[in-house]
């Protein structure tokens, strides 16, 4: 499977709890003012990579606690990421997905665009657009106070966003 990405980080400690392999997807419809990764907005930017190559890199690092899908907007490539997440979870690693959409938007449209499939493959979801007026250095693993750190499995089971502290 082919994924369009901006790049990866092999051992991030800022993209979720523990040591993480982070995949920065390419393409984002949100264009949040003050975005940390504006180079990922252009859907024609970045480069294509086979997910087998990403999985090989992930398997080569025995220190990883999980994998983070960031962006860009991961839900623009939901089907491919959901399939990759299944292979990653089979390795015993967890999945964190960052999104500019809210859980409610994704849940309401879960039957479209593979969104439900990626939600089901995600352990923790950081949702909501970055809002520069709400920028907050004290919220762990988020950029602005409106963004939520969600237990995605519990959220899906209850049909509502279930916030947790990382």
- Taken from the alpha-carbon principal axes, the silhouette is globular
Summarize the helix and strand pattern as letters: EEEHEHEHHEEH
Mean pLDDT: 97
Cα distance, first to last residue?
31 Å
Count of discrete alpha- or pi-helical segments spanning 4 or more residues: 5
Structural class: alpha/beta
Work out the number of β strands.
Answer: 7
Low-confidence stretches: none
- Oligomeric nature of the chains: single chain
At a glance:
The chain contains 5 helices and 7 strands. The chain has 166 residues and is of the alpha/beta class.
Task: Give keywords.
23% strand; 5 helices; 7 strands; globular; 25% helix; 166 residues; 7-stranded mixed β-sheet; alpha/beta
Structure description:
The protein has five helices and seven strands; from the N terminus they run βββαβαβααββα. It has 166 residues and is α/β, with parallel strands linked by helices. The model has no long low-confidence stretch (mean pLDDT 97). The chain has a seven-stranded mixed sheet. Helix 2 packs parallel to helix 4 (115-121). It is 25% helix and 23% strand.
